């Protein structure tokens, strides 16, 4: 695996040098040959590339993507582009074919990697006589024994269940009841399994429910639910009064490993030692076609990549379409983790574009700062601020907390940032004044659902943000003047401490 991986990674670089070195060394170079160089194209111009972005073209691509998502129907009974589905394979083919059409402007490479994917077919939790409405199986949870309901007493685990000594002996054969906090959900589930629990429930330390994931599978993981603090409270009270509470837990699920693919395209022109990088994720969740999440970002990138071919660039531009984002940033993590140090240093910055046209949108900028994030992250943040200001558009800051594919870059010292338009967060009154739409509703009412279809994008917002993506590419493809040089690849403690997400789901 290590080998094929290395090859895929270096493909871009190798191909670039192969194209350039013979040309530069050629002693028989004539004026005629110089005249047909691609640099005859005008140098990238932000205004001009922004003018080329059109809502019609984006919308046509969205319609195409929805048709592709329908390929997932046979296996999933509804359109989806989740990794491993025909809808995702179709998405990868579409991106690849569209890039091939752009001729030799780009070197395209595939990076194949193993991805853990989990599927929950059915689940049910009954505590005493109640069916808690907030009970949600954790991502990548295994099934209960024999995919059958299990019955047992709830046993309150001490502290936050991060140490084996927190588990009383009567957890064996029972259902561990564990408080959220301190260590990842996966560690709690593993500890419960080692202590002989038949299932585990992690209850929130806040009122609401927990949408979490166990992360990397362990043979000791047991079937695990998340539960809201509200619904846990009466249960904890009873258990503390040493009253007996029994429960029935049932999860029918499968966790498996598949191969999936990141697609990376880099301009053959421009300085490959100073790379402008940007990415979006090619996959959706299994519940739906993912046209806003993240069909929108993926198609924005494709459109910008396509319009960029009208220009020459000073710095190389590298586009990435990540797979397995929804399973926990698998593709982008893998990409950064396997980058040799000298390749890491060539990436001057990484820009993340996930969910560009939420129907009840806000123009959101990740609050990336140089105090906590690699030097340059704040300059990128300020580029977005300046642009919205110039367009006389309002914007808000949102936490830069590991929810999307920038995470691996920041953790490996590469400056990063990005923009978004909102997922399952609730629009405030103030934001309604700033952006229109409806206060009290989710920014994307179809987030991670079947209705994330072509009707689930606000084309106005999508066009605005695609122009901003084009502007970000144009700015850095032209020059890194005033942008901090790369230094360390060391991760800041402060970032790690503040990060509770790894992808769309909480892991701790
Ligand atoms: C960039 O493009 C715009 C619009 O097409 C044009 O007005 C402007 O002169 C161009 N700028 C440069 C420096 O070429
Ligand atoms: C890269 O992946 C795409 C999408 O799966 C596929 O169509 C293409 O043939 C692959 N190319 C190579 C060189 O493997
Ligand atoms: C942005 O992050 C900085 C550094 O963490 C913090 O001081 C500031 O309050 C944040 N701003 C907003 C608007 O969230
Ligand atoms: C920006 O927000 C203010 C309210 O804070 C609002 O009055 C104004 O119309 C908004 N501007 C735009 C372009 O929506
Ligand atoms: C998209 O947002 C704009 C600006 O808020 C609004 O005027 C328009 O009606 C929205 N479009 C749709 C289809 O909701
Ligand atoms: C960040 O970059 C700026 C501008 O290049 C430089 O002056 C500053 O010393 C850098 N800060 C750190 C902590 O490296
Ligand atoms: Zn997403």
Automatic annotation (TrEMBL):
It is an enzyme of class 3 (hydrolase). One of its GO terms (biological process) is proteolysis. Residues 1-18 form the signal peptide. Keywords: Aminopeptidase, Hydrolase, Metal-binding, Protease, Signal, Zinc. Its EC number is 3.4.-.-. Its cofactor is Zn(2+). InterPro entries: M28_fam, M28_SGAP-like, PA_dom_sf, PA_domain, Peptidase_M28. It holds the Pfam family PA. One of its GO terms (molecular function) is aminopeptidase activity. Residues 262-471 form the Peptidase M28 domain. Residues 150-232 form the PA domain. The keyword Ion transport does not apply. Belongs to the peptidase M28 family. M28A subfamily. This is Peptide hydrolase.
């Amino acid at each position: 695996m290590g080998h094929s991986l290395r090859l895929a990674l270096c493909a871009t670089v190798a191909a670039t040098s192969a194209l350039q070195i013979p040309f530069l060394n050629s002693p028989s170079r004539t004026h005629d040959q110089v005249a047909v160089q691609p640099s005859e194209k005008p140098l990238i111009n932000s205004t001009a590339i922004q003018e080329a972005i059109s809502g019609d073209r984006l919308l046509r691509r969205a319609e195409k993507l929805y048709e592709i998502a329908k390929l997932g129907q046979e296996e999933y009974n509804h359109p989806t582009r989740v990794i491993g589905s025909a809808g995702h394979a179709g998405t990868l083919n579409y991106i690849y074919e569209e890039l091939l059409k752009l001729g030799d402007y780009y070197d395209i490479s595939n990076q194949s990697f193993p991805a853990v994917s989990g599927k929950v077919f059915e689940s049910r939790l009954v505590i005493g006589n109640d069916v808690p409405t907030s009970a949600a199986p954790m991502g990548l949870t295994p099934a209960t024994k024999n995919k059958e309901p299990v019955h047992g007493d709830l046993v309150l685990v001490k502290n936050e269940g991060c140490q084996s000594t927190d588990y009383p002996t009567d957890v064996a054969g029972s259902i561990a009841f564990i408080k959220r906090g301190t260590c990842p959900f996966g560690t709690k589930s593993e500890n419960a399994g080692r202590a002989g629990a038949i299932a585990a429930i992690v209850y929130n330390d806040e009122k609401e429910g927990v949408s979490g994931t166990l992360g990397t599978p362990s043979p000791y993981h047991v079937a695990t639910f998340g539960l809201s603090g509200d619904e846990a409270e009466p249960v904890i009270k009873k258990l503390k009064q040493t009253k007996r509470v029994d429960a029935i837990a049932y999860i029918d699920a499968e966790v498996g490993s598949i191969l999936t693919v990141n697609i990376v395209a880099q301009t053959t022109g421009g300085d490959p030692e100073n790379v402008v990088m940007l990415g979006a994720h090619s996959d959706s969740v299994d519940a739906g076609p993912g046209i806003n999440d993240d069909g929108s970002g993926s198609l924005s990138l494709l459109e910008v990549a396509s319009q960029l071919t009208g220009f020459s660039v000073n710095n190389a531009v590298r586009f990435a379409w990540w797979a397995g984002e929804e399973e926990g940033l698998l593709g982008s993590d893998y990409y950064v983790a396997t980058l040799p140090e000298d390749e890491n240093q060539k990436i001057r910055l990484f820009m993340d574009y996930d969910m560009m046209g939420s129907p009840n949108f806000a123009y959101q900028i990740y609050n990336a700062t140089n105090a906590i994030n690699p030097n340059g992250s704040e300059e990128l943040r300020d580029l977005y601020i300046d642009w919205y200001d110039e367009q006389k558009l309002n914007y808000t800051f949102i936490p830069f907390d590991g929810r999307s594919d920038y995470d691996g870059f920041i953790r490996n010292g590469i400056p990063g940032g990005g923009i978004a338009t909102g997922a399952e967060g609730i629009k405030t009154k103030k934001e309604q004044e700033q952006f229109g739409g409806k206060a009290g509703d989710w920014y994307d009412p179809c987030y991670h659902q079947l209705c994330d279809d072509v009707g689930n994008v606000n084309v106005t917002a999508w066009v605005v943000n695609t122009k901003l993506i084009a502007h970000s590419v144009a700015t850095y493809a032209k020059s890194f003047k005033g942008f901090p040089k790369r230094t360390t690849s060391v991760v800041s403690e402060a970032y790690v401490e503040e990060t509770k997400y790894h992808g769309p789901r909480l892991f701790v």
